[in-house]
# Entry
Amino acid sequence: MKKIADKRDVRNEVKMALVRGLGAIVRRDLRAFVVDAGMVALAELLESERTAVCGPRHARQKGRQAYRAGHTRGELVMGGRRLSADRPRARTVTGEEVELPSWRFFSEEDPLTERAMEQMVVGVSTRKYARSLEPASPGVKTRGTSKSAVSRRFVAKTEAQMDEWLRRDLSEISLATLMIDGVHVDEHVLLVALGIDVNGNKHVLGVREGATENSTACTELLADLVERNLRTDYTILAVLDGAKALAKAVRTVWGKRVLIQRCQVHKHRNVADQLPESMRPSVKKIMQQAYRSRNAKTAKRLLTNLLQRLRSEHPGAAGSLEEGLDETLTVMGFNLPEWLERTLSTTNAIENLIGSVRALGHRVRRWRDGKMILRWAATALVEASKQFRRLRGHAGMAKLVATLRAHDAVLDGTVDRKEKAA
# Structure
């Protein structure tokens, strides 16, 4: 009985192997069939267009405007490559070539460039581009799938996209919140600006390449945004990671019309880095208790008490906690809904965006120059922005905007004494 069972198992395994092998053949042949069927359908479409111009074949036609002129070899874009195909020809009675609309559409380079761009973004390398395409029949000549050809199209497309994207007008964005963060790529630093409008929608405003994350580079980034008509005549909230250079640059551009929120996560990280491992859990617990209290006075009292404890034994950690402490509580004083308060108390929104730049950049083995880095970064940011959702807690944006406009009223002197006292 055991031998019979063994024989049955062997037969079943053979059958399964045959099925898997047949399935692979069918899939391969089916993909090739799709390309071939597309070519046949296109040939019929081209012939129908020629018939519309020249009339039915072998039919007499008065006032004929064009006549058939045989075929010639040409190239079409299909399936992510250029395929060699017969092009039906037609000439006018005066001898001029008639252009068939479908041939013009399928012979354009742009669809091929879009396909190469999409493949690079989703992680297909230039070397493996040809393998990612549907196979064509062995008798069909193809080109445009080599590493160099794909690379040229990707560079051309990303350069054009970057130039257009970095020059777009920003006047339609009603900015409420600005976030700025930097990412190191090779020996370069990219500064990225993320804007959040009054409805909670996110907008990648710009990116700037430099050597360091200093105030000069940040000011140049902001100056570029102003040149592209980003408004700076009303108060905004700037959420920053705590770098003094970023705060200085923002104040240079907006003056008094900016309220700065220092990232609470960065603050805790900076303090913890200067403490022994044994103290970090207790300090973290106190800082979390303070930042989640949702009361600025309570939070400051807890943090001030912690500061006094650290001052003598760990002056470095104490100094890090004290520096810009009030700015970590800015949003807490706005009395916003809980989710919006938590969202705007950190730079998590822009750090998620920065993560997409790192992820795409990890596919590059060698950076040639800063322009290449900027191209890839712009591509990553554009792709990431397609997946944007409204800010978490966006339902409370009206409360934030009202607070910012109240600050404008104080600066402009349009609020009366009773309102100031309140």
